[in-house]
Design a protein that fits this description.
four-stranded antiparallel beta sheet, two-stranded antiparallel ribbon, TolA/TonB C-terminal domain, 103 residues
Length: 103
């Protein structure tokens, strides 16, 4: 049985003072990393910096921070963000925060 992480909070932080928050057309789908489940970790937070294309596709994403470190949250955030699409017209570099929690 696959345990899906609850995307409890999908918020965005501004990469620059002029960058508005990302508005998602299709939010990223993320799963709780297997390592976190095996070690009993119940939640995690990852901040990514991505360049969004004019049609809402996140590209060139980098991990800015990951808590807790070493549990696979960063890798899962990078995988999961590829499933999301921002509303059109939001091109540019943005920071996004993905929060993982078990149900």
């Amino acid at each position: 049985m696959t345990l899906f992480a609850l995307l409890a909070a999908l918020t965005t932080a501004q990469a620059t003072a002029s960058a508005p928050p990302v508005v998602w057309e299709t939010p990223p789908r993320i799963e709780m990393p297997a390592k976190a489940l095996e070690t009993g970790v119940k939640s995690g937070v990852v901040v990514l910096r991505c360049d969004f294309t004019a049609n809402g596709i996140p590209t060139n994403c980098l991990i800015v921070s990951e808590t807790p470190v070493g549990q696979g949250f960063g890798r899962e955030a990078l995988r999961g963000v590829r499933t999301g699409r921002a509303q059109s017209g939001q091109a540019g570099m943005r920071e996004i925060t993905l929060t993982f929690e078990t149900r």
